[in-house]
Amino acid sequence: MSTETRPQSVRRLTDLGVGARFSLHPHCDDYVEVITSALAAADATRVDVRTDDVSTFVRGEEADVIRYVHAALAAAGGTRWHVVAHVLLSRGCPGEVACELPDDVLLDAVGVPELPPTGLSASAHWALYPLDDSGTDHLAQIMEAIGTAGSRATASPEHFVTRLDGDLSDVLTAVAAGWLEAARHVRHVVTHVTVSMHSPSGGPR
Is the four-CA dihedral 101, 103, 106, 111 of positive or negative sign? Predict the structure, then answer.
């Protein structure tokens, strides 16, 4: 079946390469229980989840992927231990294992999901990578995405990253908003964020 005749939902998942990889790092003795319980607490009915010895892979529609990651991080943060999470979101070829989507294809942009407040303060270092080979001004796209993210969480510049502070939900919404804003212009967009909750040295600087 050609990509021209596939339903849009199928094209998103198999051709565009929408998904996430994330790792949880609880700073406690019982870290295995914290990680496994957090993964079990997130609703996986609308996503494909695979965990190995390095990270957890999540595939699904953009909003469902974001909701799953949010739920897992919220569950881990709810333990009140210092938890660090490394999250990578990718949308578009050639990020997939196999890719047959033409370079000039962009699927319709999708909205940012509503994430319920968690009451968990989070700080994050966030970077965005619009992977565009067409010679366009990628920095302009990054700055536009940062502006979008700044309407969701407190944003401040740091070396090589943008710092985000706020409720965990606001921080992840900011990341998602920037990621999906860039996806309106570039086929392959990757974003990476390191999130910290309950750090003994935490708090905005």
Answer: positive
